[in-house]
Amino acid sequence: MTRTPEGAPAPTDRPETLADLLGGRRGAVDASLPPVAFALGWLLLGGHSLWGGVGAAVVTGAALAGWRLHRGDRPRSVLVGLLAVCVAALVALRTGRAEDFFLVQLLSNAASALAWVVSIVVRWPLLGTVVGVALGQRTRWRRDPALLRAYGRGSWAWAASYVLRVAVFLPLWLGGQVVALTVARVVLSWPLVAAVLAVSWVVVRRSLPAGHPGLRHPVEPARAPVEPAGK
Known about the structure:
Elements: H1 18-22, H2 25-44, H3 50-70, H4 75-95, H5 103-121, H6 126-134, H7 145-174, H8 178-187, H9 190-207
Helix pairs in contact: 2-3, 2-8, 3-4, 5-7, 7-8, 7-9
């Protein structure tokens, strides 16, 4: 980044992207490490050892949680990530099937796909909700017809990503393919998130009319003046 003579960052003409606003890389990468640890523990600690896989996943999840807390991440998000690993481990131990470690992930993606589609249909697209929270706009973006339409179109990319995960995970889970599930879990984490961020950003940008001030500045329709009483 270039700097002005006073040392302040120089302004840039590069438009702010959804990746800038939402991030997501670190969370997606972190979420893929416990499944990798599970597969390695399952394969290497005694040969298809469920307890070895579960132990490796929980230890990895706890180590990640401690590291993220040390870096100052929000405790709530850290604990949610660790809880997801623990629940996946408990499900696998309960059923005795290693592939069921991925069952929570499968079900959460199915629920997410449904939630994104419903949000678009009821005209509360989740992409707008998430970006609105990130920008501190609350629901102001919904009063801008152009933004509402753009977020609705961009949300389809996210809905499709969850449908893709379910389409890949389901047959692998039904077939008990633990290693293939792990590979799919990694490939469909940050690489897919990065692709969806880019695609949804392009869709949103192209859906906005020329001259629109952008995501940070919703344009509310002009209100008709209220006539004085008695006229």
